[in-house]
Design a protein that fits this description.
By secondary structure, this protein is α+β, with helices and mostly antiparallel strands. It has 2 domains: about 1-30 and about 105-135 and about 305-340, no CATH class; about 165-305 and about 365-468, Outer membrane efflux proteins (OEP) (Up-down Bundle), CATH 1.20.1600. The protein is about 65% helix and about 10% strand. It has a 4-stranded antiparallel β-sheet, with helices on one face. A hairpin with a 2-residue loop joins strand 1 (about 110-120) and strand 2.
């Protein structure tokens, strides 16, 4: 049998449902309105970085190709370095915590069934539906979101600093491998020189112009010099393993090579510009952002000491009265309000004191990072300048003199004016100076990588060479 519900009763229940919906809407609006200071920018940057830092389950065919250039190794490291992936995931986790910090308490919906209904004049009370919502002090959510978003931004800058460190490690290992290849190339050239000298001595021995002692001395030098083949093979394996570790790759069948050439020159930027850049390094900004996060946490803890507002709505469903009576079956709607009473003041004070202490610690970390940045910058600039000085000395002064001396001694030996010992010494001096030039060029490239890591950005050289 269809039950006839009076028009006034239907309207009353519709109004009650509207009130419940309005409370839920207000709750949702309060949740959305407390976004953190850096939240939107951090989420956008996170999405951009996610397209560069590959995930662990990415297919092997998505790996960047290694063509022997430094840029290819850097691209591979950005995509596959486990250190970067760990730092990226910490950044992601910190970003995901922002929404939790700005979340208001969950609303509570309760349903009650009257096992023994309460009889009223307008009818028996059968059911009760309640909605309760607490609203923290206004600054509690906004300050908490600011603290979480500043912490997420700090995690982002840690990731940026990790990128700089990985790039430096890759460049350092790359130029070590290049140096081994260059030393092997130079020693191969001097193998030909020594073998030519040995052939000359053998010819003079047959004509009586040289003794067997001279020939034995040259052949001993050739044999000792050929040892670089075995040493180079082992050094290359060790350098390749270090480069693989730096880029985050496992052992590969393809041989790793370094095809780029170290560039030379001094930074175009002046010392003042370099110092400003170094003092804006991500490591410094991490400490600044964490100090800001602690300050926001102090405000959030202070807001917890303030009372929270409690609002509620209750809807009691009432049945029809047994006897005809005015407003029969009219539901009861109750609106409640209240305040929480913070009683544990000492606990709140301790929490605020802890946040202030953490802020002071982060500011001290910032001061230490600034001092470290200044010292590292001075050391890096000095290393670049010293390497450039030695490059110019070896290339323009010492090596030309050694080449002239070697040609003179070799020509004198052929005419009998010099000895085998003099020729071997001149050849050894020339080889050592050429090796020192290669080492100086490598030292310059490695020092330049350190300098870029210290200032936190790429630099241009005054005399650009073949720079990768």
């Amino acid at each position: 049998m269809k039950r006839n519900i009076p028009q006034g009763m239907r309207t009353n229940r519709r109004h009650s449902a509207v009130l419940l919906a309005m409370m839920l809407a207000v709750t949702q609006a309060a949740l959305v309105g407390c976004r953190g200071t850096y939240e939107s920018a951090t989420r956008d940057d996170l999405a951009t970085a996610a397209s560069i830092v590959a995930q662990e389950e990415a297919p092997p065919e998505a790996e960047p190709m290694l063509d022997g250039s430094l840029s290819s190794y850097l691209a591979f490291a950005l995509a596959r370095s486990p250190e970067l992936r760990a730092s990226f995931e910490r950044w992601r986790a910190a970003t995901m915590k922002i929404s939790r910090a700005r979340r208001i308490p969950e609303p509570i919906i309760k349903y009650s069934y009257f096992v023994r209904s309460v009889e009223t004049r307008v009818g028996p009370q059968n059911h009760k539906l309640s909605l309760m919502q607490s609203f923290p002090w206004p600054t509690a959510l906004s300050a908490g979101a600011d603290a979480a978003s500043a912490a997420a931004r700090a995690a982002q800058r840690r990731f940026d600093a990790e990128v700089l460190e990985v790039q430096q490690a890759v460049a350092d290992a790359y130029w070590r491998l290049w140096l081994i290849q260059e030393e092997h190339h130079l020693k191969n050239e001097h193998d030909l020189v020594l073998e030519t000298l040995a052939g000359t001595v053998r010819g003079r021995v047959r004509t009586g112009g040289a003794s067997l002692a001279d020939l034995n001395q040259v052949e001993l030098g050739v044999a000792r010099h050929h040892d670089h083949h075995g040493a180079h093979r082992e050094d290359r394996r060790a350098a390749a393993a270090e480069l693989l570790r730096a880029i985050g790759a496992t052992a590969r069948e393809k041989r790793l090579t370094a095809t780029d050439t170290p560039f030379e020159g001094l930074p175009v930027d002046g010392d003042e510009a370099l110092h400003r850049a170094a003092r804006q390094h991500p490591r410094v900004e991490v400490a600044e952002l964490m100090a800001s996060s602690s300050e926001s946490e102090v405000r959030a803890q202070a807001a917890d000491r303030a009372p929270s507002l409690l609002a509620g709505l209750e809807w009691i469903v009432t049945g029809n009265a047994p006897a005809p009576v005015g407003k029969s079956g009219q539901d009861a709607v109750i609106v409640t309000a209240g305040l929480s009473v913070p009683l544990w003041g000492r606990n709140y004070r301790d929490a605020m004191g802890a946040a202030r202490a953490e802020g002071a610690a982060h500011r001290a970390d910032r001061d230490a990072a600034l001092q470290s940045a200044d010292a590292q910058l001075e050391a890096a600039i000095a290393a670049v300048r010293d390497a450039q000085r030695r490059i110019e000395l070896y290339r323009h002064t010492l090596i030309p003199q050694a080449e002239t001396t070697f040609r003179s001694v070799l020509g004198g030996y052929q005419t009998g004016r010099s000895t085998v010992v003099s020729a071997l010494l001149a050849q050894g001096d020339l080889l050592e100076l050429q090796l020192e030039l290669a080492r100086s060029r490598t030292h310059h490239a490695r020092a330049w990588a350190v300098l870029e890591a210290v200032v936190g950005r790429p630099l241009k050289a005054t005399e650009e060479g073949e720079r990768p």
